[in-house]
Amino acid sequence: MVPEPGVPESDDRRTPRRALFSWCLFDWANSAFPTVITTFVFAAYFTESVAADPVSGTSQWGYAISLSALAVAVMGPVLGAIADHAGPRKPWIMAFSAICVAATAMLWFVRPDTSWVFWALVFVGLANFAFEMGMVFYNAMLPELAERAWMGRVSGWGWGLGYAGGLSCLGLVLVGLVQPEVPWFGLDKEAAEHVRATAFLVAAWFAIFSVPLFLFTPDIRARGLAPAEAVRRGLASLAATLGHVREYADVARFLLARMIYTDGLNTLFAFGGIYAVGTFGFDFAELVVFGIALNVTAGAGAALFAWVDDRIGPKRTVLISIAALTALGGGLLVVEGKSLFWALGLPLGIFVGPAQAASRSYMAHLAPARLRTEMFGLYALSGKATAFVGPAVLAWATAAAGSQRVGMATIVAFFVVGMVLLLPVPDARR
Question: How far apart are CA 136 and CA 335, in angstroms?
Fold first, then answer.
């Protein structure tokens, strides 16, 4: 049985395997959105074919994503606190998933013409907001489903399935829509229908594969509060949490450390391809292949390190992962040639997944049972509130030194600072 908020956890809980798999499968379902829409295919289509030029398109896309992330940072803790008093998480997940699916499907109408720029930015911003908000409530389910001894494995398996799901959907896009001379369903390439159709594919993928979560994964029971009362108590709880932050000092220290090293990870994702092209001379085809390979190693790392998380604890797993990212990232700053870039870049991916998956399980261990969704709202805040800092520092360092290598070195600095801040935080399992 899944415990209610405020009820002490019991280590003799046994959530059915089908329920756990259905929870992990939601990662497989929703990862199609960031992989296809905001990272690889639709983002490139917008900047190259819809916007007036690639430079303005990149800027406009960045503003839309940043504004949606800011909305998540503000609303995540608030709605999370309300949900903790209302009870169930799945209705929230279903609502935000439906918004993401619908907004993503609306991107089909974005033709290769500047008159569709505003439409594209509105719906991609709305979809990204709904995607991130759904993750707040999804992550909060983890400690209520998995025993403490299995929390790292369940989190890691979900993260690994997420990488696999995103890449599987991307593979269908490339094989059926982007690469063929005649795309599926005879779509018109001149009108960019083969690219625009990726929006429908992602929407359908998300909708279909999220169904098992709603059917088979248990949820906590409703607490019988009227909606207005749940809102009142939720806001009061959030205010009390923020007003008594010293009582949650370990959580605050962890979130601060995560904010710093996540800035490094986000900047690595945003500028790694630029670095490969500008410093190592990768062409577009090589970059896509490397990006796919890197996601494969990241997914494998998340799944394999899931056992390590449960054996030595999420804190040590995060520290090992960030230390490895620091060492490998430092190597990438000094090596020459594509072969050495591949040799260090692919192992780097192995530690990206565990750093993210173990951070989620660490938060699940740390968060008080009665405040879990609220705490995962703050967890989302820590990943979004300063997302602009890493790119800004990298851009400043690159311009000041006139070197991409110097700019990329700032990412290593974020990793080191994050590790130092994490060291005093206790092992959450004790």
Answer: 39
Lowest mean pLDDT among 2-6, 54-58, 123-127: 2-6
Per residue, the 3-state secondary structure of the chain, as one string, reads CCCCCCCCCCCCCCCCHHHHHHHHHHHHHHCHHHHHHHHHCHHHHHHHHHCCCHHHHHHHHHHHHHHHHHHHHHHHHHHHHHHHHHCCCHHHHHHHHHHHHHHHHHHHHCCCCHHHHHHHHHHHHHHHHHHHHHHHHHHHCHHHHCCHHHHHHHHHHHHHHHHHHHHHHHHHHHHHHHCCCCCHHHCCCCCCHHHHHHHHHHHHHHHHHCHHHHHHCCCCCCCCCCHHHHHHHHHHHHHHHHHCHHHHHHHHHHHHHHHHHHHHHHHHHHHHHHHHHHHHCCCHHHHHHHHHHHHHHHHHHHHHHHHHHHHHCHHHHHHHHHHHHHHHHHHHHHCCCHHHHHHHHHHHHHHHHHHHHHHHHHHHHHCCHHHHHHHHHHHHHHHHCCCCHHHHHHHHHHHHHCCHHHHHHHHHHHHHHHHHHHCCCCCCCC
Of 189, 220, 243, the position where a domain reaches its end is 243
Instruction: Say if CB 342 and CB 272 are below 8 A apart.
Output: no
Average pLDDT of the residues in 204-232: 83
What range does the domain containing 419 cover?
Answer: 244-430
Q: What tokens were used for 390?
A: 């890493």
Report d(CA 277, CA 338) in Å as an integer: 10
Domain end residue (candidates: 243, 268, 295): 243
* pLDDT surpassing 90 at residue 97: yes
Nearest residue to 154 via CA among 139, 142, 144? 142
Each residue's pLDDT tens digit, 2-25: 433 343 344 445 678 899 999 999
User: What is the pTM for the complete model shown?
Assistant: 0.78
Same domain, yes or no: 339 and 372 = yes
pLDDT (average), residues 149-162: 82
Residues in the chain: 430
250 plus 190 within the same structural domain = no
